[in-house]
Each structure stands twice: as C-alpha cells, then as structure tokens.
Design brief:
5-stranded parallel sheet, 34% helix, alpha+beta, single chain
Length: 494
C-alpha cells in the first residue's frame, strides 16, 4: 500500500497519519462540514469532503468513504475507532470494492460484535465466563426465571451493546421487570436490536483488557494488559499499563485466554479482549473489541511497539516480525482522556471555544490531540479533546509525571476532565492500587474540585489569561488554573 485513506477524524486520524508518513505511505483525509479546518485535514497529503456535520451524513456513510478512495487512488482504509471501525457491512463493502481494510475480517467482526456469539466462540477454548445465560432473551417471564436461577444481583446487558447502553443492574426479583423493559428499550434505540442476556453481577470488578495482534500467517500474540477501571457511566476515563494488581501467573493466564479468543475467529490485525476481575483476582471474559482502542498508547509505551504500523504491515500481508517471548514490560504508562465535560455536573459535555489551549511538555509526556487554540469543540461528535499519556520507569513516576503534565495543560473557554484526573492521581485508593470500576461513585463528588478560595482562583485565572494571550476570562478556567503552580507563585507575577 502506497496510499491509505483514514476514515476518521480528530486525534486518531492524526495519530494514524503520522505512523503512515514514517512508513513512506501517503494519506487521504475525509472531513465533514464541521471539520473543514481540522488539523487532520491539513496534515494529510489529500483531503476529500464527504458531507454535512452529522456523522450519519458523513463519517458513517460507507459509500462516500469508498468513493473518496476511488477519487484519490487510495488502496487501503484505516477506520480508526468508532464510526465504521467495527461495522461488518462496511468491511464487506471495502472488500467487494477491491480495497484493503486495515482491520479484521467482516466475519470476525460479526461474531465478536455480538456478545452472545462472542461468548459462544470463546467457550470452545474453555475461557472463564461469568455465570449467566448463553443465549439472548426477550421474553420477560423467561428472563425472570433465568435470573432467579443465576441469583441476584444480576446484570442485564444488550447483546449488541457497548459503552454501558442497554445495561441494568438488578438487585432483587421485584425490580426485574421494570429494569428488563428499560434495558430492552434502550438497546433497541441504541443498536436496533432489543435482545439482552443475563449475567451474575460482579460487585467490585476491575476492568482488565489484553491487547492482541494476529496476522494472516496464523500468528497470534498478546502485548500484555491495560487496567481501565476508572470509569464514568461505564465508559473509561483513565487507563494504565501494566495493571497494579496482576501477578505474572495471572498475566500469563489472561494472555493465553486472550490469544485463544482471537484464535476462535482467526483474528487478524489489532484487537482487544476485555475481562472483568473480582476482588479475589478471578477473571472472566467480557467481550472483544475488533479495532484499535482509544487507550492503545499505554501499550505502545511499555512494549515499544507502534500498533498502527503493525496494523498496516499485517493488512498488506506481512507476518508479525516478533514472537511472544520477545516481548517484555518496560516501565509504566497512564492515560487520561481529556474530555470537554464538566465533572461537577455529572460529566455532561461542555461545548465552546478553546480560548486558551497550551499542552504540557517534558520527559515522559505524550499528547494525542486534534485541536489547537481558537478552535471550537463540535457538538456532533464525541467530546474528547485529547489523550494525555505519561510514562515512567515505574507506576509512581508515571503518576508524578501525570500530575505535572496536568498542571502544565492549560485550557480555558470550556470545562474539562483535567481537574478530575488530578483528583484521581492524588487519591489514596488510586495510588495504592486498591480501586475498582466504582471509583467515581465511591470517592468523587463535585465538592472535591472546589478549593474554597474564590479570590485566589480568579487571580489565577486572570494570570493564565493574561500570560497566555487569551481574550476571554470565565470561571470555567478556575479549577485548571488553581491546579497549577501559578496560584502558589502569583505574587511573582503581580
């Protein structure tokens, strides 16, 4: 492949293009009306307009992506994550057009895209499973009977779901019917498929996932784990590699299970096998994501492997150039998803203009973003502004560097998750490694982000605005400004 089209936007489009450029491969960007001035459009060798701002009229229209390839002569398509990245129908469309999808086969996507069929495939290799149903259920009476057999509390989950949609925790049989109806309704609305299944609810789980790579020569291996347990609304906010709780024995066992899951569908490319782990460190298969993950940079840091380059090499038919025994964990990496969200308002999106946007620098700091100062955050897409990743020789150094990087990351005009990230980094539950997916519910309240000194906060905000050249001063920047050293040293600037 001498030219690839990146069927995505923002930071992931830029991240893919940079690796492609290092490989001597030209890139084509696609963009909607909302992204006409986006950084990925400027960075690519060519760019094709594909429609209006809503993704249903642009980034989700497979025919427009294929046409853009034909216009530019692109031979392959990298879908990134989200949008069409796990769409089996699109994968078939790409294949029928004589193009190469930098990802797995549509058959693998179909099996792993449904949690029921994914569990059935994994069971062939005796992968540990949470007790529950092995098939989808829509009949409420039958579902209630099966729930009683499994034992409460139980988890109702959409078979075609993801991101916490169509998911309900039920503590008792009396609540079951209402929660079942809500889960089916939400699943139907979100995925067009109201089928659900039932699992025993693991009350204090860790969310551990294993990165896998497979090629067309039958080689499948894993690149260790990521701990993604700090979440809000069942969606990840902070990820790290390696996990602070895994022993080498558990790591090897999980890695083998992940490889077996990938082997069950002859997986090719980069994928992620997700597990939940209880407080006794027993792990259970959850699902497989048939794409590159948002949090892939932490794996790249600890292994030294560029996952995007590996995806491209595999797609063009190369065998993986290293073996399982060649891989080892070096150091520790942490990622904070910097969202345009207000943690003090239930993490609701906060749109606006990046009046100030200055990224942190220094050893062990990586920022994957798709914005610059003065740009607006579009309302049409995911509110993630950037991924802030830090790396250190051990977990303590990675945490210290994350705190330093957050202090050096200056954003005004919108509210972000930066202050929340610093709260997590400094919380004893996180630093000790003794936390689970309920971290936010257990420890976070809006009040923890308040310093109690509004005068100092406004002074700090004014200094940030003045010294960084922004024209707009709002109280939205108070938390970010106060978290920096500028508050402590404000007398030196006045």
């Amino acid at each position: 492949m001498k030219k690839i089209l990146v069927a995505n936007r923002g930071e992931i489009a830029l991240r893919i293009m940079r690796s492609a450029r290092e490989m001597g491969i030209k890139t084509v960007a696609v963009y909607s009306q909302a992204d006409r001035d986006a950084l990925h459009v400027r960075y690519a060798d060519e760019a094709v307009f594909i429609g209006e701002a809503p993704s249903a009229q642009s980034y989700l229209v497979g025919e427009k992506i294929i046409d853009a390839c034909k216009q530019t002569g692109a031979e392959g398509i990298h879908p990134g994550y989200g949008f069409l990245s796990e769409n089996a129908a699109f994968a078939r469309m790409v294949r029928e057009a004589g193009l190469i999808l930098i990802g797995p086969s549509p058959e693998a996507m179909e099996v792993m895209g449904n949690k029921i069929s994914a569990k059935a495939a994994a069971m062939k290799y005796d992968i540990p499973m949470v007790a529950g149903t092995e098939e989808a259920i829509t009949d409420i009476d039958e579902a209630k009977r099966r729930a009683v057999e499994v034992g409460f509390p139980i988890l109702i989950k959409a078979a075609a779901g993801g991101g916490g949609k169509g998911m309900r925790i039920v503590d008792s049989v009396g609540d079951f019917e209402e929660q079942m109806q809500l889960a089916v309704s939400e699943a139907t609305s979100a995925f067009g498929d109201g089928s659900v299944f039932i699992e025993r609810y693991v009350s204090s789980p860790r969310h551990i996932e294993i990165q896998v790579l497979g090629d067309t020569h039958g080689n499948i291996l894993h690149l260790f784990e990521r701990d993604c347990s700090v979440q809000r609304r069942h969606q990840k906010v902070i990820e790290e590699a390696p996990s602070s709780v895994l022993t080498s024995e558990i790591r090897n066992a999980m890695g083998k299970c992940a490889v077996d899951v990938a082997r069950s569908v002859n997986y090719t490319g980069a994928g992620t096998v997700e597990f939940i782990m209880d407080d006794a460190l027993n792990f259970y298969f959850l699902e497989m994501n048939t794409r590159l993950q948002v949090e892939h940079p932490v794996t790249e840091f600890i292994t030294g492997i560029d996952l995007v380059k590996e995806q491209i090499k595999i797609a063009r038919g190369d065998a993986i150039s290293f073996k399982q025994e060649d891989l080892e964990i070096n150091g520790h990496a942490i990622e904070l998803r910097v969202y345009a969200e207000d943690p003090a308002n239930d993490f609701l999106p906060d749109i606006g203009t990046l009046q100030t946007y200055v990224t942190p620098k220094g050893p062990g700091v990586r920022v994957d973003d798709g914005f610059e100062q003065g740009m607006e955050i579009p309302i049409y897409y995911d509110p993630m502004i950037a991924k802030l990743i830090t790396y250190g020789k051990n977990r303590e150094e990675a945490i210290e560097r994350m705190i330093r990087a957050i202090d050096g990351y200056h954003i005004t005009g919108i509210t972000t998750t930066l202050a929340f990230g610093k709260f997590v980094m400094q919380h004893e539950a996180f630093t000790s490694g003794n936390f689970d997916t309920h971290f936010v519910k257990k420890y976070f309240t809006p009040e923890v982000l308040q310093t109690g000194n509004e005068e100092e906060a406004m002074i700090a905000a004014l200094l940030v605005e003045k010294l960084l050249g922004s024209k707009k001063i709002t109280t939205n920047n108070i938390v970010a400004a106060e978290s920096s050293n500028w508050v402590k040293n404000r007398k030196n600037f006045i």
